[in-house]
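Practice problem: predict the structure.
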Amino acid sequence: MPTSPTLAADPPPTAAPDAARGRRADLTVLVVAVALAVWVTSGLWRDPNQRAITVNSSDQALFEWLLAFGGHAVTHGENPLFTHLLNVPDGVNLAVNTSITVYAVVFAPLTYLIGPPATFLVILTLNLAATALAWYWLLSRHLVASRLAAGVGALFVAFSPGMVAHANAHLNWTAGWLVPLLVAGVFALRRPGRWLRGGLVLGVLVAVAFSIAAEGLFFTALAVAVFLAVWAVHPARRAQARAALPDFLRGLGVTALVAGVLLAYPLWLHFAGPQRFHGTGFDPVIHAEDIAAFGAYPSRSLAGALGWDTTLAPNPTEENSFFGVPLLLLTVVCFGWLWRRAGPGRQATLTALGVTAVVFAVLSWGPLAKWNGQRTGQLLPFGVLDNLPVVNAALPSRLALVVAPVIGVLLAYTIDRLRATPPGRTAAWVWGVGFAAALLPLLPTPLLTSVRPPVPEFVTAGTWREYVSPGGVLTPIPLTLDVTPDGQRWQAYALSHRQGEFRLPAGFFLGPGGPDGRGRIGPPPRTFDTLMDQAGRTGLVPIVTEGSIRLSRADLRYWGVEAVVLPDEVHGAKYDLDEDALRRTATALLGEPRRVDDVWLWTVPTT
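Answer:
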């Protein structure tokens, strides 16, 4: 998860807690972090292979496929960043998609052992717990003396509304453990004589972060730059920044060199390789944060369970702010209270934190302001940046994710100061009520899950190999897309169970073909998949003519499809599909099918 830099620019606290008490605190945070991570993902733990995240089963299928493909690529000597298993005949450039290559490689043994769905769940759960622990390490070892303060701040960041929302299947955005490591690595460069080693370490971290969450790495870099710029020009820190600048720049040079070497090929693929595109094809106005969303409550929270949530996000995975009014008020109070008690150096840090939070909050509102679901027409700063390279590939609403760690740091600083100089009984009671009113409504609730159709026996038994040549093309109907992800789930099963390869004519990926050279999800539609999509969605068999039969069969020849498969139950990620209408439409186009295991099968002549 992207964030703003923390207060590592300040000297570490001098008060060292009792070692035994510190170890107990560390263990407590570990237990709470793991318990909360399991709690949030508990619906999937009931049966990882048969359940899916209700609001985002398509992304879950994509990440499961990426895990299976990554392991297959490594064990078979294939390119992990480009594949011809999808989007026949053009293939897919995974470097411009969220390829999570490091996860796929590291967890390949587990994927082969327990399968992609269970491995996906393990990584998702570890991401949430590790994010809390990484922030706890940074806060407790570098920023505050109180382990309680560090624990509260870290747990808030890891289970903030944005993180819980992205736990709806986003293995990239929930990898928030990368951010405190990157931030610590950046600030380590300022230490005298540490620029070489620090640059080497940070370069490797940057390469890892790029392979897991490139967009998050970009946001982190922007946030660090804003923080450092504000912090360095503050009169109280200007001399310190000037003295540290030579070593800092040397370290950044080493970082750029190391990361550049490690990422040379992925970056070439990303910006100059085949099947590249610019932008994402997502509307930045739709995928911008509603200003009122900052004071709203998220759906997967205690407040949401009480019915206090709203529909201000474009979808449940993008509740990137949703802090609630009490937390916003508490944050302002904490900032003001800390400011009045801070020396000039700490005020520089607070200023940099505040500016970073405001800048990213405003940018998250996108090019046009929205309030409570209504567009106001007010132009905003993001509209100036939207056409810049790299920026045009980011969704503005996600910039709000930077605000949560700023709030977490301010909460930690406040608790740390309160414990260092305990207030009177009345003041302590007021602070306690304030923290409870702000944080209790945001306690996360488990993700919504539902049963998904099992992978057909036709695939699990390997029967498909009797009808598809090695490396040949098979397609389910409807074709595999984000809204109909079955094909990639089947392919992931075959790859992870060492059955061999079959290719798919479409797939859930970002590729070229959108308006103005931008990207789009999946390939541009053709006659066959358009007719199948229409039948599945409407439940009506479209009018089939000699022309549509000829064009549909030409599409299948173009893709090289050898087998067309329809299971008894088709999984629609966004809407239900009519299997009977699909079968009757395919029959009208291709003739009568045969029943093989638990699917309807049409074989397609290759000539």
